[in-house]
Amino acid sequence: MYLWIKAFHLISMVAWFAGLFYIFRLFVYHVKFKDQKNMAEAYTVMEHKLLYVIMHPAMLLTIGLGVTMLVMNPTLWKTPWMHGKLALVAGLIVYQIYAGITHKRFARGDFRLSEKACRILNEVPTLLLVGIILLAVLKPGG
Hints:
By secondary structure, the chain is mainly α. Helices cover 82% and strands 0% of the residues. The chain has one domain. The two termini are 24 Å apart.
């Protein structure tokens, strides 16, 4: 049973990351075309669907399955690499919350972020993914 849960944890994680990799790319174009009403409206709809139809459910499933694995294998709580991984996952959750806030601001026409800032923020999930994968595979410290 544990391996089934782990498999679906990884599948939901891939879906979550697909959204994490794409959301700030949509924001780049939203900022770029903010003065074109039809384009701005289209980006608002795409961002909303990405966040609420793909990202939120995938995040919740990833977290839920991860917690299930931790409950099934409580010795993982004692490993330093798991603490690091969970800290990076917390960073992903904060990133997604920030993406939701950004989406709501952009939908109101409040473009506090520049196109360049959105491009830079678009790289954050990649850095977190590298750390998460390295910790999960190499298991440093035990």
